[in-house]
C-alpha cells in the first residue's frame, strides 16, 4: 500500500471518530429552525387579501349568534334606489372594536372606520364613526350575526337620535338592518372586490344591470372562503340563496341614485 493511501485512510478514520464541533451543530439547528419558521409563516398566513389590512386585535362581542333569535322589524320594502335615497350616508365600512350593547334598545355598538365614502359626508377615508347594529348577546336577528372586528361591509346609514355610551365620532344606525348589509372582500390582492348579502330578497331587489354571479365557476365558494380568512363564522354560513355581486357595480348604482 502506498504512503499516500495510508495517509488518506488514517485521515478518514480520524474524521469519522471525531464529532462535529458544538458551534457547527448549533448553526445547523438555527438554519433548520429559520427554514421551518418561514414555511409556517407563508403556509398558514391569516392575512386578508386586502393589502391595506394589517393584523389587528379587536375587542369582540360576547356572542355572534344568540341562543334566542327574532325576525327583523321591517318598515319598508326597499330597493337599492330607495335605500340609497333614504340614507344620510352609504359607505364601505370596516368594523372595529365592540363598544357595548343595550338590552333596552336591543342594539350592539361598534367603532368603525370609513374605507370608502359612496354617498354623504362621513369625514372621508379613515374617519372614525360609531355603528349601531340591531341585536344583542341575548337575542340576535335571524340571518344577521353580530359583527366582529375586521368585517368589511357596505352600510346604508342614518344619524342616530339616541345617546350611545362610549361612542366614537358620529353615531349611525343601519337602515333596514339585516336586509341591507353587504359583506365585501377581495379574493386575491389584485382582484375585483365582491359583495354578498345574507338576505335572499336581493335576488329580485337588485337592478337588472347588477347580475348575481354566484354560480359562475362557483364564485360564491371563492368569496365565502375569502370572507372566512378573517371571520371563521363564514365557514358555517350556508344561505339558501347564494348572492355574489360586483362591488364596483353596486357603488356605481348608489352614486347614480345619489344625484
Q: Any overview of this molecule?
A:
The structure is a single chain. With 259 residues, this protein is an alpha+beta fold. The protein has one domain (68-257): OB fold (Dihydrolipoamide Acetyltransferase, E2P), CATH 2.40.50. 27% of the residues lie in helices and 24% in strands. It contains six helices and ten strands; from the N terminus they run ααβαββββββββααβα. It has helices at 3-17, 22-43, 80-86, 202-205, 219-228, 247-257, and strands at 68-70, 89-102, 107-119, 128-134, 139-141, 152-159, 171-174, 182-186, 193-196, 245-246. The strands form two sheets. It has a five-stranded mixed barrel. Strands 1-5 form a two-stranded parallel ribbon. The protein is globular. The N and C termini lie far apart (100 Å).
Amino acid at each position: 500500500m502506498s504512503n499516500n493511501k495510508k495517509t488518506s485512510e488514517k485521515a478518514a478514520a480520524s474524521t469519522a471518530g471525531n464529532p462535529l464541533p458544538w458551534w457547527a451543530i448549533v448553526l445547523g439547528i438555527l438554519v433548520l429552525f429559520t427554514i421551518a419558521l418561514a414555511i409556517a409563516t407563508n403556509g398558514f398566513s391569516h392575512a386578508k387579501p386586502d393589502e391595506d389590512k394589517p393584523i389587528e386585535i379587536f375587542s369582540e362581542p360576547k356572542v355572534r349568534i344568540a341562543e334566542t333569535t327574532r325576525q327583523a322589524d321591517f318598515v319598508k320594502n326597499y330597493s337599492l334606489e330607495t335605500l340609497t335615497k333614504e340614507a344620510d350616508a352609504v359607505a364601505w365600512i370596516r368594523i372595529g372594536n365592540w363598544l357595548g350593547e343595550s338590552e333596552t334598545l336591543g342594539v350592539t355598538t361598534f367603532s368603525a372606520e370609513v374605507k370608502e365614502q359612496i354617498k354623504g359626508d362621513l369625514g372621508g377615508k379613515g374617519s372614525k364613526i360609531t355603528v349601531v347594529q340591531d341585536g344583542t348577546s341575548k337575542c340576535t336577528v335571524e340571518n344577521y350575526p353580530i359583527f366582529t372586528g375586521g368585517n368589511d361591509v357596505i352600510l346604508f346609514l342614518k344619524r342616530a337620535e339616541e345617546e350611545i355610551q362610549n361612542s366614537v365620532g358620529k353615531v349611525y344606525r343601519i337602515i333596514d338592518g339585516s336586509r341591507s348589509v353587504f359583506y365585501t372582500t377581495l379574493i386575491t390582492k389584485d382582484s375585483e372586490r365582491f359583495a354578498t348579502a345574507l338576505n335572499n330578497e336581493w335576488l329580485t331587489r337588485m337592478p337588472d344591470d347588477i347580475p348575481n354571479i354566484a354560480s359562475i365557476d362557483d364564485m360564491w365558494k371563492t368569496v365565502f372562503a375569502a370572507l372566512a380568512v378573517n371571520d371563521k363564522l363564514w365557514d358555517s354560513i350556508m344561505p339558501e340563496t347564494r348572492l355574489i355581486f360586483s362591488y364596483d357595480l353596486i357603488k356605481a348604482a348608489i352614486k347614480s341614485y345619489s344625484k
